[in-house]
Amino acid sequence: MGRGLRRTGTTAMAAAALLGVTACTSAGPSGSAGSCAGPVLEAEPERVRAGQEVTVSGRWFFLGCADSFRNGTPSETQEPITDITVTVLLDGRTVAEEETGASGEDDSFSVTLALPADLPPGTAVVATDVAHAPEAEFSIESE
User: In angstroms, rounded to a whole number, what is the distance separating the alpha carbons of residues 45 and 139?
Assistant: First the structure.
C-alpha cells in the first residue's frame, strides 16, 4: 500500500511539473508565450549616512507583455507604468518618498531621495507601490 501511494505521489508530481512547463512555454495551438522580464529595483550607494542622498533605479516596470503572440501578432501591448511611488522605510517607518514613472525602451526610472539628517543607523528598505515588484536595501551608517 505504501508503495502504491508513493507511485501515485510521484505520478502527481511529474504531471504537475509537466503542466508547469507546458503553461510557461505555450499559450495554445495558435500562439506562444514568452517570458517578459520582471521588474528590477536597485539603490545606490549601498552605504550612506543620515542626511545624504540615495538614488533608486528601476527597470522593466511595465503593464502587459509584448512577448505574447497570437498568429504572429503581439496579443498584449506593453506600456510603462507612469505612476510609481518609491518609498524608503527604516524600521517600518516611511523616511523618504517620491513619485515617478517609467519610460524608455527598458521601462526604467531613476529618482534621488534626500534622507533626513536624524536617522539612526540601520538597514533601509526601498519599495514601490507596484504589485510583485522586488524591494531593495541599503545601509544607513553612523557618523
Answer: 9
